[in-house]
Each structure stands twice: as C-alpha cells, then as structure tokens.
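Ligand-bound model needed. zinc ion.
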Amino acid sequence: MKLIILDRDGVINEDSDAFIKSPDEWIPLPGAIEAIAHLTQAGYTVVVATNQSGLGRGLFNIDTLNAIHQKMMHLVKAAGGAIAAILFCPHLPTDDCDCRKPRPGMFKTIGERFDVDLTGVPAVGDSLRDLQAAYLAGCTPYLVLTGKGTLTQEKGGTPPGTVVFDSLKAVAEHLIEQDRLSQAAADIPPKSPQKTETQGADTEPKAKAKAAVKAKLASLETQKPSRSTKKAAASPRPTDIAPKKPRTRSRATTSKTQ
Ligand SMILES: [Mg+2]
Ligand SMILES: [Zn+2]
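Prediction:
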C-alpha cells in the first residue's frame, strides 16, 4: 500500500494565523486538490493529519470542523480523488497530548489503522512541527514552500532527510514520476500490487520503537530554544494567541501575545 500523509493548513489550503474557522475560510491552494486527485489515481492512500487547536480554544466547534472537511472532501472527490482519513488533534499546546504535532501520535495511529510500516512514507508539511512529527514516526519529511513553508525553510533546523518542494503539486508530480521510473526499472506490469507477506518478518518490539522515538524527541528538543528564552517575534505563532478555552485547566498556563 502506498500511503501519503498530508498536513492541512498551508499544504492543501491557505493558512491563516487567525485560524480557519468556517468552510468559507477554507480556500484550497492552487493545484492542491488536483494533486490529491493525481495521487489517488496513482494508487496512493491519502491521509490528512492536522493540528486543530482552534477546537480547544473554542474558536469553532466539531460541527464546523466537519463542515470544513466536507468541503475539502467534496472538492477532492469532484476532482477524481479521495481522502481516506482525516486525523485531527483538538488539543491546546498546554494539554501535553500525544497527538499534537511535533509529537508523532497521529502518525502512529495512521500506521496502525492502515497497518502500514511508516518507514519512508512521505509526510508533507509546511511547519517545522509537521516535519518533526514525520521524522519521529519514521516517515520522510517533505517540506512545501506554501503556507508557512518559506519561513520554515529560512529558520532551518529541519530534521535529517527533509526534502523540499514548491508545493503539494510538485510533491505529487515527483512521487508519481519516481514510482513510474522504479516501476519501469523493476519491469513490473502496472497492476494492482500483490499483498506482501509480512508475517515472517517480526516487527520491531514496541518498547524498543518507543525508546527510539523518545530519544529522537529528546534530540529534537535540545535543538529548540528554551521555553524561557524570549523568541524573536517574527510572526505570532498560533500558540502565542491568548486562548479562549472552554475547558480551562489552569489559567496560569495560558500565555498572551506580547
Ligand atoms: Mg500547516
Ligand atoms: Zn492532541
């Protein structure tokens, strides 16, 4: 099975620091819908994994998020494509959950749900945390220069093995061409892939895999500036926006922009 994992905002649709709070605010990037359709037609299972802390902040509710995703799915379907699943993290950065990127929780869930080894699976994002989550899950991080992508590239510090493309369209073209070349090289007739036998090959013990992710996460975190360090306020990050949160755990943990 060929799997590809996509971030949503800044990869498929225009990003906004004010969050995407309604279907009307969800505007596809040029060529992105078609790119998903091409990937689908080339045999890819397309899955979206997106941080949606706007839910936790009370900026929109689950019905609105579903409506936004219905719009996305409808456009993709109309173009001849499909999105197999959308995973979202509704939590706030302060919730310390396992699903919010840069943590790889959503990716692991995708791997389990689709029973796919994530090693080398392309994972496309425009923010550093997308690439970090991809890396931690064993995927190949693809940075696109849409959304926050250019800024992410300028800031640097992307995980090892990160590849850079202009857009999701360029990623799709690259992957499809790569598949075509490797298929031609292997001289495999273009048929539906046979189910590969994986029973013999014992998967890595879970504890070991967990420890590896922990070590990777630790190494990534040492590269980050410490929390107390005042960050150059180049652009307000979503995490810096004072949250209007419905389920306040502790008011002291909320931060305000400047
Ligand atoms: Mg994004
Ligand atoms: Zn979460």
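The first strand starts at residue 2 and ends at 6.
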